[in-house]
């Protein structure tokens, strides 16, 4: 019988669920695989705090370093959640330096330090697993690892943030305002008291970095990417777009063109009928990958929550013990030549003065910039202003900043400016 000592960092919702899964499955693991899983230490900030699970007999400690340094611990399960990268990162790094295998859940740590940690794991011949950092219960890392031999993944897209998707879904399907949808998301536990990372798309940015690393063996500078917020999108936008056969979804799209990365991270206008992401509602996620041989494969499921995330971590635990080695999981990465926001097609919601020549001036600006007007729709006048909804496109990327500057010079108020993703592009 082989004994494997496990150290767990964090006993919040995910850590607590993981502990229960391990304890419940200990007998089966002994019987089927001849492995005795022993929890040697569980790091918590306060050992006296009342927990959602029964902690009787569990080896709690407020000294995380003692778990990392314990020679009887061979596998570290990181469930630190929002405790901060400044604490989580050095613990993971030290564990790998001691040649321990690590299963991670902290997406921000991996997004900021992933290449360094993976290089270190390869050097020390330890395994670093991170399926739980993106997609919740969607086992995307395992799919990519086992299904894309001898082919490239040159495009990834999908919905990676359950909070923003829940808000957009409620605005579209239930006609709730942004504030109402956010409040409900917070009430249900889908959104934090400060939801900025979710609704301003930074959470999606971190997950996009991980997917590029995981699926493309590439890495990009987080500071070179502009995540876009879903703040400011109105019910009027959803109503207008629905009439035209579109809706808005919080999208992540990464596509390699030559050696460049074209991306969208934030709200995007998509077809209701023809786009696979449009039917993914509530707090669910979807990840689609396009392989050079396999074509498009998509996977959907809960993007967060204690049970989906903990179950993926437990799968990583078993796969680490039974099948994996560091050379399978990581073969090095290379950077992109340029990182370019995809603005080839845009939807604009404008407030325009009801004066002669205003529309002609807008059309002239767009023409001067080489931008095609695919559709221009105007709606009811209020206090000398009316709403204009404009669909524009260009064979080349539109200079978004120059467009905004030009419209402001004409005293046009921009209420929404959102990329359009046409089906043929996906």
Q: How is this structure best described in words?
A:
37% of the residues lie in helices and 28% in strands. α4 links the parallel β5 and β6. Strands 7, 9, 10, 11, 12, 14, 15, 16, 17 and 18 form a ten-stranded mixed beta sheet that branches. The protein has a six-stranded parallel beta sheet with strand order 3-2-1-4-5-6, sandwiched between helices. The protein has a two-stranded parallel sheet with strand order 8-13. By secondary structure, it is α/β, with parallel strands linked by helices. The protein folds into three domains: 2-129, Rossmann fold (3-Layer(aba) Sandwich), CATH 3.40.50.720; 140-302 and 335-340, Dihydrodipicolinate Reductase, domain 2; 343-425, 2-Layer Sandwich (Alpha-Beta Plaits). 42% of the residues are buried.
| Strand runs, count | 18
| CATH-assigned fold name of the largest domain | Dihydrodipicolinate Reductase, domain 2
Basic shape: elongated
Q: Which bin fits the share of residues in helices?
A: 25-40%
Please tell me the CATH architecture of the largest domain by its name.
2-Layer Sandwich
Number of separate helices: 14
How many structural domains? 3
Structural class based on helices, strands and sheet pairing: alpha/beta
Average pLDDT across residues? 92
Radius of gyration equals: 24 Å
Weakly predicted, low-confidence segments: none
What's the story with the biggest beta sheet?
Answer: 10 strands, mixed
CATH class membership of the largest domain: Alpha Beta
């Amino acid at each position: 019988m082989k004994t494997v000592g496990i150290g767990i960092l964090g006993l919040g919702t995910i850590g607590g669920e993981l502990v229960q899964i391990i304890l419940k499955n200990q007998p089966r693991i002994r019987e089927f695989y001849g492995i005795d899983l022993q929890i040697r230490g569980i790091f918590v900030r306060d050992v006296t705090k009342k927990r959602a699970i029964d902690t009787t007999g569990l080896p709690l400690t407020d000294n995380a370093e003692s778990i990392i340094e314990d020679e009887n611990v061979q596998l570290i399960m990181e469930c630190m959640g929002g405790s901060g990268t400044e604490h989580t990162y050095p613990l993971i790094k030290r564990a790998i330096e001691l040649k321990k295998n690590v299963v991670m859940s902290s997406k921000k740590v991996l997004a900021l330090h992933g290449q360094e940690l993976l290089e270190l794991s390869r050097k020390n011949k330890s395994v670093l697993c991170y399926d739980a950092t993106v997609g919740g219960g969607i086992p995307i890392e395992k799919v990519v690892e086992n299904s894309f031999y001898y082919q490239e993944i040159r495009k990834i897209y999908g919905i990676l943030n359950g909070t923003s998707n829940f808000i957009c879904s409620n605005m579209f399907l239930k006609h709730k305002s942004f504030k109402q949808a956010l409040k409900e998301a917070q009430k249900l536990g889908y959104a934090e008291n400060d939801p900025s990372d979710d609704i301003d798309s930074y959470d999606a940015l971190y997950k996009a970095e991980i997917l590029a690393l995981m699926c493309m063996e590439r890495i990009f500078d987080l500071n070179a990417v502009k995540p876009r917020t879903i703040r400011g999108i109105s019910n009027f936008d959803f109503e207008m777009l629905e009439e035209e056969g579109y809706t808005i979804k919080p999208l992540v799209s990464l596509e390699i063109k030559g050696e460049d990365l074209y991306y969208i991270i934030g709200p995007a206008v998509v077809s209701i009928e023809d786009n696979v992401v449009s039917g993914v509602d509530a707090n669910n996620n979807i990840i689609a990958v396009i392989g050079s041989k396999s074509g498009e494969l998509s996977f959907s499921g809960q993007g967060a929550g204690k049970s989906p995330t903990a179950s993926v971590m437990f799968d990583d635990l078993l796969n680490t013990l039974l099948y994996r080695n560091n050379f399978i999981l990581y073969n090095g990465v290379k950077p992109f030549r340029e990182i370019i926001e995809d603005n080839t097609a845009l939807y604009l919601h404008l407030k325009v003065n009801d004066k002669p020549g205003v529309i002609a001036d807008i059309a002239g600006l767009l023409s001067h910039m080489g931008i095609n007007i695919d559709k221009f729709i105007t709606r009811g006048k209020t206090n000398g202003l009316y709403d204009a909804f404009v669909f524009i496109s260009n064979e080349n990327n539109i200079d978004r900043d120059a467009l905004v500057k030009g419209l402001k010079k004409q005293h046009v108020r921009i209420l929404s400016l959102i990329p359009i993703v046409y089906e043929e592009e996906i």
